[in-house]
Write a structure and sequence with these properties.
Blueprint (H helix, E strand, L loop, with lengths): L1 H27 L6 H22 L10 H10 L3 E3 H8 L3 H13 L4 E4 L5 E4 L27
Antiparallel strand pairs: 1-3, 2-3
């Protein structure tokens, strides 16, 4: 499928470039009929072609594009996540998720805590379960109190 997408992208790009070049040639030659349509069509086809080629090549998304998915994972995880947890949930490369989380940290959306093992845990205070259901990734869960059940 990616081969077809890439091929269509290249065809759009070439057609768009030729249409734009023809529009420029018409303007320079003093002819004016249909130039606007040809220029818009050429520009649109060029942009579409570049987009299809980028999509088929697996071009990496910007870190900001992952933010909604990261926030969903953090919400479902009680407000604290580690990089590999997000990677598994959103099916994105480790370095891309790591950059996105660091960018979110730099903007104050979360804070980075480092556990004894050296693993970074990203805490989203606004997404933590305030009813006691949050998980603490930095500390082991306390043992269950047998006297609480009665």
């Amino acid at each position: 499928m990616k081969v077809v997408q890439s091929l269509v992208g290249w065809l759009c790009l070439v057609y768009g470039a030729l249409a734009t070049a023809r529009a420029v040639q018409v303007v320079l030659g003093g002819e004016g009929d249909g130039v606007l349509f040809m220029a818009v069509l050429g520009g649109g086809m060029t942009v579409a072609g570049v987009g299809l080629i980028r999509a088929s090549s697996g071009a990496k998304a910007l870190p900001g594009a992952l933010e909604p998915a990261i926030l969903r994972v953090a919400r479902n995880a009680g407000g604290r996540v580690v990089v590999l947890e997000v990677v598994a949930a959103v099916d994105a490369p480790v370095d891309q998720v790591d950059r996105a989380l660091q960018a979110m940290r730099d903007r104050g959306l979360c804070e980075e805590l480092v556990g004894e093992s050296g693993v970074s845990v990203y805490r989203f205070p606004g997404l933590e379960d305030l009813q006691g259901g949050k998980r603490d990734l930095l500390e082991p869960a306390p043992p269950a109190d047998p006297g609480q059940g009665s």
